Amino acid sequence: MYTSGGTAQVQHYDVAVVGAGPAGLSAAAALLVATQGQKSVHIFEKTAMTARGAAILVGVNGLKALQAIDPQLLDGLLAKATKLEGSDRYNMITGEHMEFMAMRNDMFQEKYGFHNALLGWSDITGSLKAALPQGSISTGCPVTAYKQQEDGTIQLLGPAASSSSGASDAEVVATCNILIGADGWFSPIRQQVLQDGPPTFKDAVVFRARIPKPDFMPEQRTKWWVPPTGPNSADSLAVFIPLPGGDMVWQCHCPVAVMREKGLQYDPVVGEASSSHASNQQSSSSSSSSSSSSSSSSSAKERCLKAFESFPAVFREVVEATPEAAITEHGLYQRTPEQIPDGCWGAGNVTLVGDAAHAAYVDGTGLALSLEDAAVLGWHIQQQGLTAAALRAYEAERISRVKAVFGLTAKQAAAMKAGVPQRQLLDERAELLYGQAHFKPLQPVAAVAP
Ligand SMILES: Cc1cc2nc3c(=O)[nH]c(=O)nc-3n(C[C@H](O)[C@H](O)[C@H](O)COP(=O)(O)OP(=O)(O)OC[C@H]3O[C@@H](n4cnc5c(N)ncnc54)[C@H](O)[C@@H]3O)c2cc1C
Known about the structure:
Blueprint: E1 2-3, E2 9-10, E3 12-18, H1 22-34, E4 41-44, E5 55-58, H2 60-69, H3 71-78, E6 86-91, E7 97-102, H4 105-112, E8 117-120, H5 121-130, E9 137-138, E10 145-148, E11 154-162, E12 168-181, H6 188-194, E13 200-212, E14 221-226, E15 237-242, E16 247-255, H7 256-261, H8 268-274, H9 300-307, H10 313-321, E17 328-334, E18 350-352, H11 355-358, H12 366-384, H13 388-417, H14 423-435
Parallel strand pairs: 3-4, 3-12, 4-9, 6-14, 12-18
Antiparallel strand pairs: 1-2, 5-8, 6-7, 10-11, 11-12, 13-16, 13-17, 14-15, 15-16
Helix pairs in contact: 1-5, 1-12, 2-3, 2-12, 12-13, 13-14
The protein binds flavin-adenine dinucleotide.
């Protein structure tokens, strides 16, 4: 126990994780397996962890990583997943059907052992949370900084609270031996370690919501509304994604330049602060939900309908029918390949996982890369214990992999912009992401010698 401000006692943990997104939850799960449940691992999460209205396609690499951490956890998640057949693409101006793009499920299964799994956000975080001992997460508990102590332990600091004298004093939330920053795009832990500023705003805004699935929506196909020449970063797009269990997610991206043409402003800093990707979002089927805000006084729904006013009625009617409080609006951010540091992304007994370490562009890789982090971190800690050396070995392995993935994504984006056929790059991407993803299984607790 530790004393904060001379009064309240604060808890000491072997490992403290800041952030209970997929990266923090999976890292905690991996460390519990890697340390045979012999070390205390605790997560501090700033939100209340209510369900987020999002659908995630977990790539084969993410599934392989989960298998290495805990095969039972993977089986439980796969039991909830939808096997997506493919995507119907429609012309975003005329609404005309353009093509059906089949998922290469059988080829992936045969070649890589899995096909991609479509899951609800809360199914993923719920399963990961259920794998942790009860009481492993403190919610409503932001950590804004840390302080290295002379005895080698680390103090976790909460937001500064003003004292009666008017002076600001940061509260000590807990102490730990190892600190893992899993605090997403705008990670305060990253800022303290690397001091390299926020990620790059991708000049685009996303609106999304989870709603009960309309009758016309197929179980295993997504519906996309894209430019007649195919998706590109200068244009808007919209998608309906079916989820297992009767809901679906609608999601649409709008470049800021297009929003401006429609008379809509978006301030990326204010927008992120007030309506974060990391904020919580209930399904519309839930009764109490937090409303999203934006950088103007109009509602997210009004802004979405304005931004997508030229889109086909089938899309707009679904947005129109969505309860205001279910809609989230936020900017899109990314760390470019150059923003991934060369040597390490930690210092001493502090490291980073997930978007805090490597915010990917929204291309379906972010969550799977977070699961990869957890598997690799668990492996190095199993080999070298809870040591700075294990953290540096983890970072070295991850940095080369993340740079390769980000490099290929950048190449793909450039090819798409230049109108180059994507086929070969898609194969290259599958080989890199799925074929070259190998994780050593962590030793389960039951396998410990007596
Ligand atoms: C619209 C959209 C669609 C996506 N689709 C896919 C997809 O299909 N496939 C895929 O693989 N990836 C996808 N991604 C990417 C994926 O969502 C992220 O890569 C993934 O969520 C990263 O997990 P994380 O835990 O690192 O970060 P987050 O999910 O952002 O979690 C960070 C957590 O830290 C908490 N936190 C932040 N600051 C603090 C603090 N100071 N103190 C305490 N807690 C804090 C936050 O509240 C949050 O719970 C998508 C992303 C977006 C935006």
